[in-house]
Amino acid sequence: MPQEIIPGLHLLEGKGANCNAYLLEAPALVLIDTGLESGAGVLEKSISSLGYSAGDVGVVLHTHGHADHIGADALFPNAKKWMSAHDAKFVNARDYEFTAANWFSQNFFPKIKNFYSANQVFEFGKFSLEVVETPGHTRGSVSFYDKKNSVLFSGDTIFDMGVGRYDLVSASKKELLASVEKISRLEYDFLLPGHGKIRSAGQKKNIGHCLLLLKNPGEI
After folding, report:
1. What are the start-end ranges of the E strands in the chain?
2. What digits encode the pLDDT tens for the residues 99-148?
């Protein structure tokens, strides 16, 4: 079942390899990431349990272009889909290696027509999401920062006591470290990652742990 994090913001928790999808209640519903194509039925049921339908989703924002974050876009053919230009290039080319679609036996690729600009801000009702470029897991990875609501959607850049993989196509440990350092300068109460549980306390401690993982893993 969906978990309400703050009023109007829901975690539609991913299962197994599926990513976390987040639903924002705005005049047209907004989703941050959608998950695997094979998880579309679960996602649709989660949306329905909140009293909405897939057709109510007007915008899908992607943190990056891996298959486990884009496959259930199939539910939303009429929604505006956004991604960084870098990652979208590979998604639109149906690149199985970059997207890791072959890992998940996924053949659906959304068509991305909308691309983020640096420091772009989306206004969705009570939510104000700043696009923060956080390369490392992929070169085009982004996070979304809502200062007003003290929320960070981190994609696969950082998790609760962990960081994203940096051994994949276009990934970089150096870039990931710089992105985590950038995130360390933000103030937020809720960390909403692309996988695993949300974190609602001890954000500086978590960031410190993530930095150690990248700088001095032997100290952990």
Report:
1. 3-6, 9-12, 21-24, 29-32, 57-61, 80-83, 114-115, 121-124, 127-133, 142-146, 151-155, 158-159, 162-163, 190-193
2. 999 999 999 999 999 999 988 999 999 999 999 999 999 999 999 999 99
